[in-house]
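Retro notes, item 3 of 5
We never archived the inputs for the EPU complex last cycle. Fixing that now. Sequence and ligand:
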Amino acid sequence: MEVQQDISLKNYNTFGINSQAKYFAEINSEEDLRTALSLNDYPKKFIISGGSNMLLTGAVNAFVLHINIKGISIVKETENNVTLKINAGENWHELVLWTLEQNYGGLENMSLIPGNVGTAPIQNIGAYGVELKDTFVSCEAMHMQTQEIKSFSKSECKFGYRDSFFKNEGKGLYVITSVTLELTKKNHCLNTSYGAIETELERNNISNPTLKDISNAVIAIRQSKLPDPKVLGNSGSFFKNPVVSKSEFGTFSKKHPEAPFYKVSDDAYKIPAGWLIEQCGYKGKRFGDAGVHKNQALVLVNYGNATGKELLDLAYQIIEAVQKRFGIAIAPEVNIIK
Ligand code: EPU
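Structure as it came back at the time:
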């Protein structure tokens, strides 16, 4: 493991923000991670993996560890299921494609989500009716202070909507080193209930979809709405969809009967933040190199040289506009690094 100095993080975060790291190392194994975490010369450590869910707002005056631990292994196999242990540095979408080649089911709806496997549990990634927690068995993580490896069961991860233990009590304490998932080998449980998937399958005259058909439909939908970070810097949904109580929702929907919504439970309704932001006139707006994507108002984009600070100012402006117009508080989904 080699410690480098004054490295640009532009290629390590999908927003493409040109922040400098004071110190930087590639972490290719659990051993590298243990060594790096125990180097007391660099007291402040900062973990970066796919860099797809963060907004860097200034120089990172810390020892940046880029998690690049690769490898996929089968830990258990029965007639119907397979249990895979995937190391944290594997790219999420490449994993999904690999599982589809093996005809393993469970991840197809989460095709094309940017980022790496190790960060997937932190925000319980999800798309088109499926979340990581649906196939999740456990994960292993190294404690940043003691360097001990602990295994976290699904219940210990406390998964919620874009939420987990690692975003709350466990924040900043652990580095996830691997994730174990259970997938199906046959009798796959296909989830095509999400309207846009049904429409895409119908458009292609597919009535009996395979796992790959669903993945292709998801890829087509995502490509039509979400910018490719390799082309236009972004971090996926910048905001979470706000969840409001039944009575708040009642007041809101009386005023805005046309608004889309999802019922989460008897007393919880989710309102798409993208819709709220679009109504405030921000969809497709550009301020210098910082902007709101033209096809999906939930996504902030970097047209080239936006700073993290400019994107953050835009985010605050949007939060304020939504609050003023609808009386609803929206909050960032991405981690703001100050
Ligand atoms: N909408 C608008 N204007 C917009 C965007 C959306 O009116 O600019 C409306 C749509 O017409 C639709 C509703 O809002 O009626 C929901 O839109 P969509 O189906 O695109 O989903 P979303 O709620 O905007 C969430 C996730 C996405 C995920 C999709 C599909 C969050 C914060 N975002 O978006 O996740 O891909 O559902 O499951 O939950 C991500 O986390 O990075 C991400 C892209």
